[in-house]
Write a structure and sequence with these properties.
Elements: E1 9-13, H1 47-60, E2 65-69, H2 81-90, E3 94-99, H3 104-111, E4 117-121, H4 127-134, H5 138-151, E5 156-161, H6 170-183, E6 186-192, H7 202-208, H8 212-223, E7 231-234, E8 247-250, E9 254-257, E10 268-272, H9 273-276, H10 278-289
Parallel strand pairs: 1-2, 1-8, 2-3, 3-4, 4-5, 5-6, 6-7
Antiparallel strand pairs: 8-9, 9-10
Helix pairs in contact: 1-2
Length: 306
Amino acid sequence: MLTRDELGIVHLVLNTDCNAWDLAPATASPGVCRFCYRERNRVTTTPAVIAQVIDRIRAESSAHRIVFTGGDPVMPYDNHLEPALQHAHGSGFDTNLHTNGLLLKDRYPGLRENVTVYSLAIDGPDAESADWFRGQGYFDRFQANTAMLIADHRRLAFNTFTTAASLAELPRLAEKIVDCAQATPVEYWLISQYRPIGRANSRKAGIYGFSREEFVQAVNGVRDVVPDLPVYAQPTREPDDAYPFRVWVLGDGTVTADLGSVAAPRNTELGNLLDDGFESLVRHAFALREGDPFRTAPITPEETSA
C-alpha cells in the first residue's frame, strides 16, 4: 500500500473542460484565463465506475484527500460530481472542490454535505483586477460565493494567479482573505506564477513572464499580513527544476502523473487503475521520474519530498 508520506493527495478529474470562457473579457484584458494550460475535453464515465475508482484508491493507498479538479468540476451538465463527492467523503477522504465558482450556487445544495474545502480562484482584490484575469462579472460572483459559504460556515481556500502588474495588489488581496478567515476557517492560500506547461508561447510569456525573484519577494511580503494562514508559492520553474510529484486520476480510471519535466506537453498516461492497480501504476511513475522504468523497489518518502 502507498503510504501517506508517499502519496497524501490524489487529484480526481471528472472533466477537463471549463465554463470560464462564458464570461466576456474585461477591458484591456488579453482574454479570459490566458494562463490556462489544460486540454479541453470530457471524461466518459458513470457513477458506478467512479465509485470503483475511488474504492481502488482507498484500498491501495493511505492518501487522505481527493481534490476534485479539471478543468472546472462544477459544470452545466451532469459529470457525476455529486455522487462522486458523496462516495469519496463516505469512504473517509477529505474532499477539496477546486472551482472558479461560476456555477457553484446552482449546484451547491447537492454538494455542501460532502465537500471538506471549497477552493476558490481569485486573482485581485477588486473587480478591475480580478475581472482582468477571468472575465467581466467574475469578482461579483466570487464575492457572492464567499458570502454564501461563510454564512453556511464552510471551510475555504484560495488560489491566485499573478502578473508583474498584479503583484502590487497582493497586499490588498491578502486583507480580503484575512477578512474571510476571521469569519470562517481558511485552510490555505496558493499563489502562482506562470507555468509554461505544454502550451507555452511568446505571447503568454510577455503577459505573465517576470522574474522568479520578483514573485518570491512579493509572496513573502504578504505572509506577515496573513500570519496564521499557510501561504504556498508556485513560481515559474526552469527546465531543470522539476515539478513536485502529483497524480491525477480521471473518472474512468486512467492514471496520469507529473514526471517532473516543465517541457512535457501533458502529464504521462500510466494506465488504468481498474486494470493495472493503483499502487503499481504510481510506483511505476516513481521509477520513471527517477529515470529507471524497471525499478520495482518502493521509493522512499525523501525521494518525493520536492
